[in-house]
Amino acid sequence: MTEIEPAKNGTPTICKDGNYLLSRYDPEKEIERALSGIRPGPAFVVFGSALGMIPHELARLGIPPERIIVIEPERMLLENSAPALYALGIQCYGDVPIDKLTLWMESALAAGYRPEMLSLPAFERAYPGEYKLFEAGFRHSLALAVENLKVEAYFSKVWFINYFRNLSSIVSHKNRYIPAGTCAGQTDAVPLVIAAGPSLNDRLDEISRYRDKFFIISVLSAARTLLSGGITPDLVVLSDAGPANILHFRGIPPHVPLFASVYANSALISAIPNPVIFYDLEAQMTTPSYRNNSPSVTIDAGLLALRLFKRKPIFCGFDLCYSERYGSHSGNNSLSELRRKKSITRLQTFDTFTQSFRNRKDILIDDGKTTNRHLQLLRRLAGEMFAGCGYIEGGVRFSTLMPVSLESHGSTGTKCDTTDLYRAIPMEIQDKVRTILKGLIKELNKGSSGLKGTVFIREKLAGVDSGAVSGYYIHKCEQILRSLPGGNYA
User: Fold this and answer.
1) Separation CA 472–CA 335 (nearest Å)
2) Residue-wise pLDDT tens digits, 438-478
3) CA distance 420 to 417
4) pTM for this structure?
5) Angle formed at CA 191 by CA 211 and CA 220, multiple of 5 degrees
6) Counting beta carbons within 10 angstroms of the beta carbon of residue 210, is it exposed (0 to 12), middle (13 to 18) or buried (19 or more)?
């Protein structure tokens, strides 16, 4: 039993099962002595806030609130600490929130602060099971954050270059558009979001049979699978595909529009003759992040369906698991065909290639499905974002999405015209593009202080002056501006 009692000096203290976790005389003085050797450099994940006294002492030592996160071992302590913890970091109790903690650690590491665990020995002894889970959760989140940051440090400049190259195409290319907005949501069409999971192979006949009842939104890697079944998607979505994915466009009719992120590969987009609609253009012009924040193109496609249509989408091929028969993805896409021809020998047949996922070191078995930690996180995120939507069974089960059949769902009304979903880019947006590109040159010339946490992450972590390496990007921006109508960037 845990109780809050007054200490001899009147300050609250904690007693658990007859043992005091804080001083019976002066808890604040005890906390001050315990933290006297704290360095100001790290970011702290605190196990047991000691009724808010630990975060307050950290704040007194110069640690700002955004570098403090508190995990209480039980709800009662959180409830009694809440007033003292207000505006001092994030607070929770029980299981370590891996997703939230990982994102927090990424931000701390990118800013140059290494996360460290902080707890009083008395709390570790009083809650041994909870502390063991806390320690494991901390280490797991830190490992994920480091790996994510490595990826971001590598791709940050790629996303940055894609951003201003795609912006320039908005001014110089006639086949660029923006979403039409809420007016498209008035259609009664049911969006069917097609992902490239292996179960899609077994659904082609069913999709073809009821094709006229749905508006089909396909991720790029699933488009050729649909085409192999005689199904032409109504639109295609891409967000993180590389230039080699141009192979996926073979056979897609030129009238099918492509909804793309402004951070999508600019070389890939420039090679596509289809209409290109930048679905995140307006948001990323106001406050550009210079990064692709989405963990899945299927999630992007689902969000787009929610944005464009008033009826909730149905997902198909969103398996988030591996198939013993098909492997990791649906068949008949260009890249898998090329790898198949290259891989098949007498010693390594296509069967061994499709089961190559077994060589991964992060494989997990969940509810009888072969998956991994990343796919599990995507399932949790999709469950939160698309609660109440439908899905076609074949992969993992979603607790918040409803299993449906294509036969019993869909629309019998007027089919949606894809041209209603996008419109020409207004002149004011084109003018703003020029202003943004000129602003980037000024920011880069100033030493890129505002880009250190996004574009120049690697330099910041290594202690390198980003201003010394920004000249290349200034040159590229100037080249792009000179190529635009008008030609003068001054």
Assistant:
1) 33
2) 888 887 777 655 676 677 777 776 667 766 677 777 887 78
3) 6
4) 0.73
5) 85
6) middle
